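User:
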Amino acid sequence: MDEVATAIADPVRRRILTMLRDAPLAAGEIAERFAISRPAVSRHLRVLRESGLVRDELVGRRRIYRLDSGPLVALADWLAEFSAPQRWEQRLDALETEVHRTRRERRARGPAEHRTEHIA
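Assistant: Predicted structure:
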């Protein structure tokens, strides 16, 4: 997971991943979309390949890169642990369960006992 996090920390590499999300591209096609040198783009592609986020295939004289989002799953799962909505969903689910349990217990005791609870 550390290699993946390191790989996506760079904005150029994130842009490459975004490009490859839509379709596989040749190394030259990727390099054309950046103002940086072709060797610099190659270094970014090597980091992405070593982290497992992209795979390359030699087709004729062209090297075609494809996204492999598999390594992102572990990172996404880890990040999800920090998302506030998930924490609130769990707490609200627990509250809903408690409300239903309390209502069920009151109904089981009957209406006479329910009234005495409110008076006391």
